[in-house]
Amino acid sequence: MTVVEAPSRSEAEVARGVPVARHGRLTPYLFLLPFGVLFLGFVLIPAVFGLWVSFHDYNYLLPGKPWVGLQNYIDLFTPDSRDSGDFWKSMLATGIFTVFSVPFLIVCPLGVALLLNRAFRGRGFFRAVFFAPYVLGVAVVGLLFRFVLDPNIGLVNYYLGHAIPWTTEVPWAWVSLVGMTVWWTLGFNAVIYMAGLQDISPELYEAARVDGASRWDEFRNVTLPGLRPVMAFVTTVTILASANMFGQSFLLTKGAPANETRTAIMYIAQTGLGNNRQGMAAAMSYILALALMAISVLNMRLLQRREAS
Questions:
Q1: Listed residue (183, 98, 70) closest to 134, CA to CA
Q2: What is the model's pTM?
Q3: Cα–Cα distance between 206 and 224 in angstroms, integer?
């Protein structure tokens, strides 16, 4: 004899069209509360306060902080002003570093991820080896490369037998900064790529092999389309991280030679903390932020168009 379990009271009410009372409507908001407090305290309030500071001749050591409106922004776009030349020179340095570092940080981690995604003995060990530098702080990495690449006592010049100015002349300084950053952060992007590779169905590769596709055909027609959302994320995050580079240049080259490698973040920090001109530094920060927002939106739009086509 089969016993049919009677529907619960709420199910019966739903079946008859009777509205069901809902409880705990505040529960989702309570779960969001910790993040909301952190976002409000460490993101939203500082952002609004920074915008307010950018409209003042702000110096936290002085009692008076006069309102100047858009004058800080106007000065940055006036060629003969005090800060315009140095600021845009630092923006150019930021652009140079971003242009040369981002392609390496997209392509090299992808190659590492493809190799480490295969099944072979010791795969877990090599995954840990490639990811290990990323857990180091920028101070550790900067001092390590400062010792290795020092033009006078560096190990690289010692073994090469040549005095190459890795940290004092361009383009060698850019080579050092890009190489250091790629070595340091390659593992993070590789892990993201490996996670994306795990989501690609093996059946797609099997179907491609049945059709006689080569390894290059599999990569071009299966792997790259499957990784497109992941590549959009990696590209955007890498561009933002490279454009905010500070510690590498501060520790390795100190902006040398002649501030050629002084990035925008370095100059903003020098203006706000070194010269106590927080209003001008805040205006610089918002110009940099708007530029990065525009680049991010453009990058996402381009990737969406490629995906649609």
A1: 183
A2: 0.86
A3: 16
- Nearest to 181, CA basis, from 267, 239, 105: 105
Sign (positive or negative) of CA dihedral 131, 134, 140, 144? positive
Q: Which residues pair with 67 in a beta bridge?
A: 56
Question: Could you identify the residue written with the tokens 């070194």?
Answer: 274
**Which token pair is 242?**
């490279």
Residue 219: the pLDDT is 92
Q: What does 62-127 look like in DSSP terms, one character per residue? A: SS---B-TTHHHHHHT-TTSTTHHHHHHHHHHHHHHHHHHHHHHHHHHHHHHHHHTS--TTHHHHH
R_g (Cα) of the chain, nearest Å: 27
Packing angle of the helix pair 278-308, 84-116 (nearest 10 deg)? 40
> Which of 203, 199, 281 minimizes the C-alpha distance to 233?
199
Residues 177/257, Cβ–Cβ less than 8 Å: no
DSSP character at residue 56: B
Q: In whole angstroms, give the CA distance from residue 309 to residue 39.
A: 37
Residue 56 pairs in a beta bridge with 67
End-to-end, the C-alpha distance of the chain in Å comes to 60
Query: Per the structure block, which two tokens stand in for 19?
Result: 């509205």
| Residue 7: DSSP 8-state | P
Q: What is the pLDDT of residue 195?
A: 93
Q: What is the pLDDT of residue 300?
A: 80
Counting as low any pLDDT under 70, the low residues of the chain are 1-23, 306-309
Alpha helices in the chain (DSSP H): 9-15, 27-39, 45-54, 71-76, 84-116, 123-131, 138-149, 155-160, 172-198, 202-210, 215-218, 224-226, 228-243, 247-252, 264-269, 278-308
What is the domain class of 71-308 according to CATH? mainly alpha
Token reading at 89:
């020179």
What is the rounded distance in angstroms from the CA atom of residue 23 to the CA atom of residue 43?
32
